[in-house]
Amino acid sequence: MKILLTGANGYIGMRLLPLLLEEGHEVICAVRDANRLSISSEMQTKIKIVIIDFLKPVKDDVLPKDLDAAYYLIHSMSSSTEDFDEKEQLAAQHFNEYLKPTACKQIIYVGGIANEKNLSKHLWSRKNVERILSKGNAKLTVLRAAIIVGSGSASFEIIRDLCEKLPIMITPKWVKTKCQPIAIRDVLTYLTRVLGNEKCYDDSFDIGGPDVLSYKQMMLEYSKFRKINLSIFTIPFLSPKLSSYWLYFVTSTSYKLALNLVDSMRIEVITKDKRLQEMLDVTPLSYVKAIELAFKKIKQNQVVSSWKDSMVSGRFRKDLKQYIEVPDHGCVSDKQKIKVDNPSLALENIWAIGGTRGWYYGDWLWKIRGYVDKLFGGVGLRRGRTHPTKIYEGDALDFWRVILADKENKRLLLFAEMLVPGEAWLEFKIDKENVLHQTATFRPKGLFGRIYWYSMLPFHFFIFGNMIKRIASYKEK
Fold first, then answer.
1. How do residues 64-79 score in pLDDT, each as one tens digit?
2. Rounded CA separation 286/189 (Å)
3. Strand residue runs (E) in 188-298
4. What angle do CA 200, 206, 208 make, to 5 degrees?
5. CA–CA gap between residue 120 and residue 162 (Å, rounded)
6. Model confidence over 232-279: pLDDT tens digits?
7. What is the β-pairing status of strands 203-207 and 139-145?
């Protein structure tokens, strides 16, 4: 089958893509930026990429006319606290227009469980998208899910952050709300098995795991699995806004995502039937089993995708390509270089920078900078990195975004997503003479930007000078 996959560089899309290819389908990936599709060069040869921004006016003749099916995996909840519903509505309308001239027979959409009368803005928007997609020419199949549990999923990473960092929690009353988590593995099973299944046309199905748990129970079950002593005390007067700040400061989530999540956590999300489970003969995994599988992936460094790599996890929204050429006009910079005896070792050290490896020198200073950034509404250091040694363009790397990751030409370029009065780049490159070049470039915005840079010079002197030396010679124990 010829399949359109939207949201191909998202958390679910990145995991669904290889499964569709394994089943022999021809896949067309719709992305806003081809550089953001974090897949191997081998996999890129097996797919077709089309550039579409579903929030912009529809362009003619972008998609092949002989499409058989399409996955709609687009949402905007993380990008805004106010108008994400309008963006989701517009994207769905444009999606219908793109599909109109094609022969697409089926649209598959992952929405949210919405069985309560009073829905949150997030759940209402997901249901509204269903309504819009149902007006298209193709038959619609909707899979409604609650919390998705898997390595790299937003829900799992938030629970993980909370339980690993806070042995004692003072929590708002929404932790008593019931939900029905589902393993990412089961979501992918449903997504592949409904494809082309006419019994699933023009219908919506609730999908969930076998356990109905409160958020408090989910955290306690996680802690029990991890052998962590956790005490949770609930108080009734934490407002949604205070709860959002609490999630934002303790976990790696963005404030926008935290606010929208808290708004939805007031609503019970429990499946109303098991029709699809019985129809497709699926035995869903328990919550604890889903956690166990997530940790296997983490320990084996096989986390395929993470919500943190989404562009909405940071403040960077523009096309990556325009930042590949680092400017020099109106900029200040710190340039370091050193001859390396083992360029292969130095290159591997560059590709392992950040995350658990750290920044090779003055990690405590980097952490302080991360805390300050988080305090003033930035991303901080908590995003880490998805894989300890692999980097793709568009990936989040602590409070940086990967602009270029060209291992063949030995060049890594990062753009700062921390809050700074200007724009900042950090570049590593090994030339043909085996000289490692490390360049920090800053384009200040106004007088305050220049004051910021020069006030940082004493720290830069120690950090950057020692960092390049450690990169050239560091050997993991």
1. 999 999 999 987 654 4
2. 15
3. 203-207, 213-214, 231-234
4. 125
5. 23
6. 888 776 566 666 666 666 666 666 666 666 666 777 889 988 899 999
7. parallel
Residue 334 contacts by C-beta under 8 Å, 6 or more apart in sequence? Answer: 439, 440, 460, 464
**CA 252 to each of CA 380, 447, 471: distance values in angstroms, whole numbers, following the listed order:** 8, 32, 27
More confident residue, 393 or 381: 393
DSSP string computed for 154-205: HHHHHHHHHHHH-SEEEE-GGGG-EE--EEHHHHHHHHHHSTT-GGGTTEEE
Give dist(CA 331, CA 417) in Å, integer: 17
Nearest to 107 by CA among 30, 46, 44: 30
Contact 276, 197 (CB under 8 A): no
Residue 375 has phi, psi (to 5 degrees) of -60, -35
What separation in angstroms does the CA of 455 have from each of 419, 448, 462? Answer: 15, 10, 13
CA–CA separation, 222 vs 195, rounded Å? Answer: 33
The alpha-carbon radius of gyration of the chain (Å, integer) is 23
* Closest to 121 measured CA to CA, from 179, 55, 74, 77: 77
DSSP per-residue string spanning 88-140: HHHHHHHHHHHHTTS---EEEEEEE---SSS--HHHHHHHHHHHHHHTSSSEE
Q: What token pair was written down for 168?
A: 């004692």
